[in-house]
Amino acid sequence: MSRHDTDLYDREARNRGISVPEYDVSLEDAEAWSAPAGGQNLNYYQRVMQAKHDAESGQQADPDGYRPPGSRTPGSRYNASAYDDPGFYDDDDSYEDDDDYRYDEDRRYGRDISPEEYEEGPGDDYDFGMGGRRRKKKHTAKASSGSKKKHKKKSHPLRTLFLLLLCLLLLVCGVLYAALARIGHVDPVADASADTITAADGYTTMSSPLVTNILLIGQDARSGEEQTRTDSMIICSIDRGTRQVSLVSLMRDSYVPIPGYGYDRLNAAYVYGGMELLDVTIQEDFGIDLNGNCIVDLDGFIAAMTGVGNVEIELTQEEADYMNANPGLGMSTDPDEFTQIDAWALTAGTNSLTPEQALCYCRMREVGNSDWDRTLRQRNFLSAAIAKFRQSDPLTQFRVLSSVAASLTTDMNTLNLITAGLSGLLADTSDMKSYQIPAEGTYSADFIDGAAVLSVDLEANRSYLKSWLYGE
Question: Is pTM beyond 0.70 here?
């Protein structure tokens, strides 16, 4: 400690308007109390105050005659001194930089003391006998000469890009989960049961980890009806390797063997055994693996298309005239003579079809080449609806997914649906392929048991399907 400490106290007392007498106390007087006397340890402040008191009263400094501040003689000007106030320095900020002051003073007198001694030395917490601890020195922004600057670690651009992509993927998965969770699920899983039965029957099917085949089933059931024959069957195949999406219509009048029931129309399998038997029939007859099913009825179709909105479709004059004359075909129930139906005014060319008009467009079979053109219209409409969905903003896509999901029933779990959904979003839907089974030249029209059916060359159609979906 140096003498300037007492100068600091005097200066602060004057700043507060307290009269402080001028006197001269030599360091020799102060040093007289540097050693403990009478078993008492005197700090520097106590020794200096005692020396000042003795100098003022004319007494000689006596190391063995220490008198504590409380026993000072009456009338001493130090009895009511600001130095005796325990909070004199505790609530004031004027000495925040006193370390810098002491450092400058020591340099002035040629004492070689580093700044760290003032910042880290024991004197910073010493109370100087004033009844309270001084606050610890606040570290200022000044850096000492020996300090090292800490450099901010730079983030790697590839790591940042990876984190951004991961966050985006998690966001997309979360949105898909929230939307697809509304789909109705069938338990047990029909596709898994179908795979077990197909293998047990001794059949092998072609599959690939990069190809997902989902059977879309349009159920021809009016409001209030239970399970009926399927009105349409379309395999939606997504190849993650080539990003190719293919739509393959299965003709419902195809005359094929149904396990356990003999030969019948393909759509009868759904009536006999639901999705499970329909999957077994397709896998055993055509040799390709199905990964799941999605079903929609007439009510569900209208509800789903309400979420999608109007879809632009090219109509021929014959199609426009037929739809204008049969608007009831766009209803989920057969209209009677009392049903009020709004007239349509569709024309040849591009038309923006409402959900009811879209249903009529997909169902009519009297125009063109019966079921051949009908299944083609269904694939055209599905392609146009997917294209519109892909062009929509993310908020609209979420609303559409939520609306469509609530109208579907599936045997796929949510994780498989999310995987299929991500595959569809990443696929190139600008050039979707469109096919139908049986392929041209692989069938013949017959009447069997009074019903018009298509006798199918199964082996030839197996080859076509494997080529279309797997490139074999």
Answer: no
